[in-house]
Amino acid sequence: MVQPLSLLKQPLHTDDCLYYDVVIKQAHHGYAHTEAKIYNTDSTLLTLSRQRIAVYN
Asked: Rounded distance, CA 33 to CA 44, Å?
């Protein structure tokens, strides 16, 4: 379950460490789709991210 930032026990600070866990779901011919999760240091899930990426030469 994603924890709303407004309900965190400790506020986030600009020098806090966050953990980024990403999985490449599909990649082919310069295009990719990724899904990621961002956690704080006590392993609370803060956000989900889905990205589509295109690489051009």
From this structure: 24
DSSP assigned state of 15: T
- Annotate 24-52 with DSSP letters as a single string: EEEEETTEEEEEEEEE-TT--EEEEEEEE
The whole-angstrom separation of Cα 23 and Cα 45 is 15
Q: In which band, very low, low, confident or very high, does the pLDDT at 34 lie, cut at 50, 70 and 90?
A: very high
Single-letter amino acid, residue 12? L
User: Does the pLDDT at position 25 exceed 90?
Assistant: yes
Spatial contact of 39 and 48, defined as CB atoms under 8 Å apart: no
